[in-house]
Every structure is written in C-alpha cells, then in structure tokens.
Amino acid sequence: MPFGFARFILSGFLKLLRPARAAVPFAIIVSEGLALAQDAAATPPPSLNTGDTAWVLASTALVMLMTPGLAFFYAGMVRKKNVLSSCMHSFVALAVIGVQWMIYGYTLSFGTGNAFIGDFSQFLLFGMNSDSLNTTIPTYVYMWFQGMFAIITPALISGSIAERMKFSAYVLFLALWATIVYDPVAHWVWGGGWLQKLGALDFAGGTVVHFSSGVSALAMAIILGKRLGYPHEAFIPHNLSMTLLGAALLWFGWFGYNSGSALAANGLAGLAFCTTMTASAAAAFSWMMMEWIFHKKPSALGIASGLVAGLVVITPAAGYVTPAWSLVMGLMGGIVCYYGVRIKLRLHFDDSLDVVGVHGVGGAFGAICTGIFASIGGTGWLYGDIAQFGKQVLGVAATGGYAFIMTYIIAVVIDKTVGLRVDPEEETIGLDRELHGEVGYTF
Fold first, then answer.
1. Residues 58 and 150 occupy one common structural domain
2. Cα–Cα distance between 235 and 376 in angstroms, integer?
3. Does residue 147 sit in the same domain as residue 210?
4. Omega into 231 within 30° of 0, i.e. cis?
5. How many Cβ atoms are within 10 Å of 441's Cβ, its own excluded?
6. What pLDDT is stored for residue 115 in this prediction?
7. Is the domain of 340 the same as that of 308?
8. Same domain, 151 and 17
C-alpha cells in the first residue's frame, strides 16, 4: 500500500475517534482518502517553462539597463565638473552589489532564515545548479532578476549625496547598506519574512526599493549637510538632454522591472505592463500641467521627473490594480511628487537630485494606494478589506523607520572612520578631477 494512501486512511480512523456531530461512514473516509491521494499523484512537480524563462531573462537585462539609465538621468542634473562622479555612483553599484549579492546578499534576502533575515544556506549559491528551479524558471535566472533590484536601490540614494561625498566612503556605504538595510527588508516583504506573512502587498518594490531608498536618502542628506553655496547659488543642470536619455532608458527598463515581477509570460505580466505605461504617462501629464499652471512653462526636466514619479507610484501596485485605477494613481502621483520635491525647501535639507521627493514620497504613496485600490490578487479598502490598508501603512512605517535609523547609523560610523565628505577645495574644483583624475568634457 502506498505511503500516501496509508496516511489518509489513518487520518480517517483518527477522525472517527474524535467527537463529531454525526458519524462518518468508513466508506466515505476511504473514498476521500483515495481522492486526495490521486490528486497528490496527479500534481506534477515544477517543470521548466521556456517561455517564462525567456521573458524573465529579458526582464533581467531590462532591469540591469536601468542602472546605467539612472547614471545618465542623474549625471545630466549635476554641474559639469561632477558628471563622471555621478555616473560612477551608478556603475560602481553594479560592481559592488553584483559581487555582494552573489556571495551572500541573495541568501540573506531569500534564504529560509527567520521572520527578519535569511540564512546562509545558499552562500556562494551552494546547492544551486542549472537544473534548480524557482517556480518555472531556473533559480540562477531568478537570483539575478532579484539581484538587479538590489543593485539599483542603493544607486538611487546617490542622487541625494551628489557633488559632495567621498568615493571611498560611498563604496563602503554601498556594501554596508545593501547588507544591513536592503537584504533584511527584501526578506521581510519577498523572502518569507514577517511582512509577507502578514499579507502586505508589494508587487515590484514600492517599499523594498523606492521608499527604503528615499528615506535613506533623507538620512544621508541630513548627515552630509548642504553643498557649498546651497541654496543661495544656482545649481543648474548642465545637460538636460542627458537626463532625458536617462529617463527614456529608465522608462524602457521599467517594463521588465514591473512586468518581469510576474515571473512568467502570462496575463499578470500583461496587466503589469499595461498599468506601468498608463501610470507613468498619467504622472508625466499631471506634473507637466502643474508646471504649466504655476510656472506658465512646462519643462523637459518636469516631464522627465513626472514619468519617473508615475513609475515609482505604480511599482507596488502594478499587478494588483486595474488599468483604470493605475490611471488615477498616476495622475495623483504626479501631483503628490510635484509637491514632494518641495519638502526640502520647507525642511531645509539638500537632496541634490530629489530622491526623497520622487522615490520616498512616491514609494510611500504607491504602497498605501495599493491598500486602497487593489482588486487583483489582493483586496484593498475600496473593495471591502480595510485591513489591507492597515497592513500597507504598517509596512511603510516599519520599512521607513528601519531604513532611516540604520542608514543614519551607517553614515555616522563611516564618517567617524574614513570620513563622508570631500574637502571644501575638492568640492569647489569638482569631484571628477579631484577624485577620479579625469573630466567629462575636453572640448
């Protein structure tokens, strides 16, 4: 007698021994046991799906492209004496986190572990081979798809520290922040941690990536202090054409970012693609209209900022809301983030490239809206589940509090050891020449 069948028969006898409202005939117990055993035998083990694999491979490459895209986006907004320094912040993240993720970042994020952090069961990817699967795709592919998220997240923070942070301190910051902040938060939300078990929704990284980086950017801006001359001098972007190129690459890559998070070439990926395009276009439009109304001239930087804001806002909700609600979220998100970038003027901190206003404010807004408008794969407040709204708020509060405190501690430790900020003379001359021995333009 097969073991599975024997187990079901035994469980049936145990049911007979318990008090019950009515006696259960033995024949029914046997038939139910047979049915369950047949269902278990009929369920095939996970198998490789070539279509899903091809889509996630392409999505992984698209998400990787976002980090160089971010380099262009940020570099165009700094002064020309710091263009290469700004690009280096993104490219070095590919190198540092690329190594950290493969060695131990992935296992801390997605290893079994406990409710707060993964274990070292997959250190150096031990136990993984070309036949290992995560659902229907190779685990190697899944590992690097998630790795591209881990790479771009600390690179986003570099926008708040542009033009004044030591490169050596930044490299150390990348490794520490990824280990202490990103890996635990990713485990909480996606790796079987406490927020995932609670039921908090984050389809592609609203809290894990954008809100955590935005809050961390605030901590870094406070610790580093303002750039020399800020806010009295004009800090004019030196090449907005470069920024628009970066925005285009981010927009293009974001379809892999959100749609790829379905981990399959299916209808859910199609939904995420649709909501991503809708929300980003809507936010670009609403930000443009805000500038047109209040400043009489719509700007290229404004529409670029708006489309990124829309992408941030829809990221946690991409696979959970209908296209109609993504339109609403995008329109509102453009306006919310338009005012979000003005927080620094009120609170008097120097967030060089508006990471706090776009990624921090946009990430929180999108995560909370997910708890209101979700109707696919989850039920939001508007559809009768107010508890989901509470879970989203809790996720935002926990992620934000943890990221801010840990980032602040990391920054203080680095400042007391190698130092965070360049010398005033180096800042005045420019970080390209002083830290990297080269310049972006020679004509």
1. yes
2. 44
3. yes
4. yes
5. 11
6. 97
7. yes
8. no
Q: Which residue has the tokens 């749609």?
A: 259
State yes or no: pLDDT of 3 exceeds 50: no
Q: For 176-231, how does the pLDDT look when each residue is reduced to its tens digit (9 = 90+)?
A: 999 999 999 999 999 999 999 999 999 999 999 999 999 999 999 999 999 999 99
Tell me what pLDDT residue 40 has: 46
CA distance 271 to 321: 9
Same domain for 373 and 281: yes
Q: Tell me the CATH number at 426.
A: 1.10.3430.10
pLDDT at 26: 42
How many H-runs (helices) and E-runs (strands) does the chain carry? Answer: 20, 2
Neighbours of 226 (CB within 10 A): 15
Q: Could you list the residue range(s) of the whole structural domain that residue 250 is in?
A: 51-436
Q: What is the dihedral of CA 163, 164, 166, 167, to 10 degrees?
A: -10
- Residue of 109, 91, 193, 181 whose CA lies nearest to 145: 109
Residues 6+ apart with CB under 8 A from 26: 12, 16
CA dist 435 and 443 (Å) reads 21
Give φ, ψ of 138 to 5 degrees: -60, 140
For the segment 106-121, the average pLDDT, to the nearest whole number, is 97
CA–CA dist 310, 140 (Å, integer): 31
Average the pLDDT over 313-329 and give the result.
98
Same domain, 294 and 360: yes
- Residues facing 133 on adjacent strands: 138
d(CA 397, CA 98): 29
Comparing 309 with 442, the larger pLDDT belongs to: 309
Beta bridge partners of 165: 421
Q: Hey, which residues does 137 pair with through a beta bridge?
A: 134
Say what percent of the chain tops pLDDT 90: 89
Q: Tell me the per-residue pLDDT of 54-92, one tens digit each, with 9 for 90 and over.
A: 999 999 999 999 999 999 999 999 999 999 999 999 999
User: Cβ–Cβ contacts within 10 Å for residue 319, how many?
Assistant: 26
Contacts of 140 (CB under 8 A, 6+ apart): 125, 128, 130, 132
Per the structure, the count of domains in the chain is: 2
Q: Is residue 422 part of a domain?
A: yes
**Strand partners of residue 332:** none
CB 103 within 8 A of CB 124: yes
Domain match, 34 and 69 both: no
Cβ neighbors of 70 (< 8 A, separation 6 or more) are: 90, 152, 155, 156, 246, 250
Closest CA to 165 of 226, 234, 215: 226
| DSSP structure string for 167-203 | HHHHHHHHHHHIIIIIHHHHHHHHSS-HHHHHT---S
